[in-house]
Amino acid sequence: MANLRWGQKMEKKRIIEKMKQLAELIHYDPGDITHLANAMCVNVLDNGNTSNKEYYNGSLATLGDTVLKMIITEKLYLEGKDRGDITINKSDIEKNTTLHLKTLKYNIQSFAYNDQYFFDEAPQHLQLPNPGHDIYIEAIIGAIYLDRGLKYCKNWIESSELVSI
After folding, report:
1. What is the CA radius of gyration of the chain?
2. What is the pTM of this model?
3. 154: Cα separation from own chain's centroid
């Protein structure tokens, strides 16, 4: 089982139930649900930089971004695209604003949580992050990759409504 930074006040059982709902929404069959919980955990990490917040799921989003780029690039390469076409098409597909619009369309942000709240439950002054770029779908992709491997992740991405490749 993956390490999870369970919230200080949030019940583990409640987080798991919410992640099961998310898995159903995105048509993902988790082996270890804690990977998905890690993808949606937006506790702020203390990195000493007060001007640029780092979230717990940030590293997982970086992994997911890399996996997504590789899968998109492979697909475009196998379709016979040249380097320039691959670059242009890849950037359109994995653009943060494109992924963010999918986050909003499917209400993915509502599954985000910190030590105390889920996204929709947080008081106005303690709102969880929902910036104009995506921090959730890429983290979900990273979680799926870690949990189920590259082949499963590739199949999920190619069939997912969250990512259009």
Report:
1. 16
2. 0.87
3. 15
